[in-house]
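U., I forgot to send this yesterday:
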Amino acid sequence: MDPHDRSSWTDFEREVASVLDQLKPGDLVTYGEVAAEAGHPGAARAVGSVLRRSGGNFCWWRVVSADGRLVPGHEAEQTRRLRAEGVDVKDGRIRG
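Result:
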């Protein structure tokens, strides 16, 4: 997945990218919400795969698990980025 050449992406990757491109600072969505908005309900894990393969070219920190958990292994960076956008994070979870 070349993040600079979307012409080589699958339809699914482009649809997910379109949803992610619309997120603004402070927005939060779940992997499942991204999948549903992209027209692929139930494809939450595939959204995570797109984010992993993208090399950080999307606002990955604005995407959390259905129960508000942050990305395992990246909690510190995700917390830092979300707090900078005014999102309340505590103990690896979004507080709401």
